[in-house]
Input
Amino acid sequence: MTKQRFRSFASALAVGASLFAGEALAKSDITIAMQLEPPHLDPTSAAAQAIDSVVYTNIFEGLTRFMGDGSVVPGLAESWEISEDGTMYTFKLRESVTFHDGSTMDAEDVKFSLDRARAEDSANAQKALFAGIDSVEVVDPLTVKVTLSAPNGNFLFNMAWGDAVIVAPESIDDIKTNPVGTGAYTFGNWVQGDSITVNRNPNYWGDQPSLETATFKFISDPTAAFAAMMAEDVDVFDNFPAPENLPQFEADPRFQVLVGSTEGETILSTNNKKAPFDDIRVRQAMAHAIDRQAIIDGAMFGYGTPIGTHFAPHNPAYVDLTGNSAYDPKKAAQLLADVGYADGFETTLHLPPPSYARRGGEIIAAQLAEVGIKAEIINVEWAQWLESVFKGKDFGLTIVSHTEPMDIGIYARPDYYFQYDSSDFQALMELLNETTDPDERKNLLGDAQRLIATDFVNGYLFQLAKLGVAKAGVQGLWENAPTAAIDLTQISWSE
Amino acid sequence: MSRNLILGALLASLVLLAALVSFVWTPYDHAALDIPGKLKTPSAQNWFGTDHFGRDMFSMIMVGARTSIAVALVAVGIGMALGVPLGLTAAARKGSWLDEVIMRGNDLVFAFPSLVIAILITAVFGAGAINAIIAIGIFNIPVFARITRGAALSLWEREFILAARVSGKGAARISAEHILPNVANLLIVQGTIQFSLGILAEAGLSYVGLGAQPPTPSWGRMLADAQTMVSFAPHLALIPGLAIIVTVLGLNLLGDGLRDWLDPRIRVARA
Output
């Protein structure tokens, strides 16, 4: 008996004969592993990516939605009209869409969702998406008119975010534990610390998806992730945490590896208000002291694209500025000497748990040490990172991947944790928001990228790769991650 | 001298030597990264190969020995420095409220699984070698207090102590001049055992990321880093694992051998 056959024989014994008989048919269930468990299931009140991974387009839908290639297509809004001046969007909603509890989805629900998200006391993690909305009007049950205070070329894109999904006032109280949406899957069961199950929604307005049930399983430890995948306990690992193990999956015919891009700009975040980082020359010196390729090879085993600014390379508006901060330790040392830090200085480097940060941090600390900067490594858990770095701004350097799509706007917020305060950049962002002409927007985005690169706000390292691992028979997985999502409606098993 | 003693002393001094030599010489800079040269298997250039950042494993093991020994040694030192006086005091004041307070306090510390509390301490006060030392040190206190009290109690019944008391010496002076020298053997043996436990505890704390922080090499963290790479670069885990085994085995054999050699009762029995 070959190893392979023995393995399937053993697993068949383990799960019982009944399943063995069903093996011949295409499977209708799937187990998808992810590293982090969502804190709750309301995408409209938390930034946690894990929430979107489970619920986005599966349970909740928005007026528009992202596709796997990053394009924005109609969601619950069938079509829309934009007024001449670009400030009025009239959405025509799909007919006979119902929530999982049987109530109909109509214009009132859209108004409720948008008003709730942009309210003064809203807990929405991306309130900026709704900031330009002046009013939301119900024209008739299937028509909603949204008036913006100024034209916003990004509005349809904004409405595709998981933070902008449509929820119902009837079920809003329990949304965190019992999400009721309009999607193709209904919430089934949540075993805290282990898994979440969703079931196909027979009343879905769109095409019935191929999978009947799906289980999201949470496996945080990279070693356990490898073992679970190898033992075929899970069918898909959404974003595999240990890039070093991918060659083994690639060499194994039982598996397929999907390497794509994410919206995650991985940066060496620098506290721009804290001496000596308030001096642009110090930040420039650090930028030249960092060897991006060594970090990508050492921390990510080669998976990742170098970036020279805070922008995703797969975006058409991307400008390659890596040359602006090319690896040049001599220049770095010289720059430091010029500002009186010939002997370097001491600072802290806070590292959250993902390996891009922990391993990348060790490499960066060594590279900074080459030019005399002593960065004391402080490993922190995410909760601690959010508390002391993100909220408390008590840090010198930190490494984090900013995974929100098109998030260059954070540089216009002087109170954002890296505290970059540039009136030029803020003016640029205001201009961008008022511009709808695609070419003009592209130019402005280019200017914005150049400005933060030449200001050396942060150390720009690499674009995080999406490393998916799946069993060979799984089809329809997103290769790239334009947003955090596991779109079950597209997934099926090959016969 | 037993075979155990000689073998144990050899292994322990090998590790100690590696740690001492690392102060003046290592084959390579233990912190120097060489990403293109990562994951090399052991060879003439890199005796223990290189890790996932291309650092020389032999140099890291040498410096890691330093970390382990320093943490364990100071932790045992803390345990002895506080535990032995406590034990002597408790024995000298046997049955008094002071004895009760000391020994029940020890019971309290003993009641907790030491590594779990060490994790708690380092999690609260921050990860790092110093906090690891304190955390491990605290759990050495009751060990030494108990063993000292137990041995001292039986000594207090002996005639020569009685003689000392008759000659007018106080309890503190008797403890220092007569009791302590007579329990020293036991303490040395226990110290060796605790030392090996300290090495294990340090490796355990480093493994969960609460021991010495990078770039200071530590055997436990080397093991943790190697976890996902065991399947294609087993030397990353085997080598620090072996280093821990050799050290702990050596110290245990040494402790065993020392007990056989130093314990007067066994010596008498043998003669």
Remarks:
- The mean pLDDT of chain B is 90.
- DSSP finds eleven helices and no strands in chain B.
- The two ends of chain B are 13 Å apart (CA to CA).
- Chain B touches chain A through 20 residues (CB under 8 Å).
